[in-house]
Amino acid sequence: MTYSLLSLVLPCYRQADQVPDIVQECVSVLEKVPLRSEILLVPNGPADGTAESCRREAERRPQVRVIEGSAGWGGAVRSGIEASDGDLVCFTNSARTSPEDLLLVLLYATAYPGVVVKATRRTRDNWRRRLGSVLYNLECRALFDLPNFDVNGTPKVFPRDHQALLTLEHSDDLLDVEFAVVCRRMGYPMLEVPIVSTGRRGGASTTNYRSAWRMYTGALRLWNDLREERPCSTPTTN
Fold this sequence. Notes:
This protein is of the alpha/beta class. 41% of the residues lie in helices and 16% in strands. It contains 7 helices and 7 strands; from the N terminus they run βαβαβαβαβαβαβα.
């Protein structure tokens, strides 16, 4: 399997001032990857100037497109994937992904065609995030028999012919566990790349006690849907 075009999907949340630097860094990274590329900016927050900043970058750079009208992390990722043209697709948290980590994961993806490649974050900003992440990942491993140590870790890269990943359904933070469950159910091989950077560039984290509780209980609901074989967020191929 060979790839010809890489689509990089970047949800942007309250990052009006950071978007130009983020795009420049991504362009520099993509120049080191042996593929043609496109960057899809997906503003998914309040009207704070982020969308306008994204549009200015699209006007300046032919490889950049703006996909608007999305809400939530999952909704932004899904919109970007749907609009992408690449036979290799990557999405990542633009506020938490360093250029070095992005390049590392992308090079692994080009070196291992047909494999899903994702980052696994080994460190966290503080002990609360570390504890919350451990509990959530233990829950997901137990409920869905997942091998992942960091379900929410990004960047995530997958080949377009893994069609079940093109039709994810969650529009919130549960999209990442849905992604992992789909890979497990469909038998898509996955390679996890450890990363250690913890810096944040712009925006404000949407993770708090309330959102964490929604993720814990949401994972339980998804597990119950699968257990009872009702229509759920895990797609199947025809």
